Request: fold
Amino acid sequence: MPCVYLGLGSNLAEPVQQLEEALAALAALPATTLAAVSSFYASDPLGPPDQPRYVNAVAALDTELPPLALLDALQTIENDQGRVRERRWGPRTLDLDILLYGDRLIDDPRLRVPHYHMHARAFVLYPLAEIAPADLTLPDGRALAELLAACPLAGLERLGAV
Reply:
């Protein structure tokens, strides 16, 4: 089973609770095991500044679900938790992103893996580094350690372990 890393984020409707509920839903997915979860982190929004700070984490799944089936399942979890897509990078109850899917490069109209901008997002890289092997190299050849060295914390605040 490939190891899949997911980014989790929320800044509406009790964000910590949203992430905890999402983790329970991920653990209940068929043919899937929730293998690890990072600490939760608070981060400033990337999009419009007129929104609350986010709570973010990274989870590792061992799954037999194919990438697009997993994406569909993640979007169902988001919708079940009240996700509404009103504006790009706007506030949300829950955002679940596939960051890495084993060693696969995926370029599909619905899904790009590695996640297209994870290399510049401290709220993805630092939680990922907590649960990934220290020598993790992305399928496109970039080493996680190099990405971390080039990505300052930039307002990222560790909230603690789950």
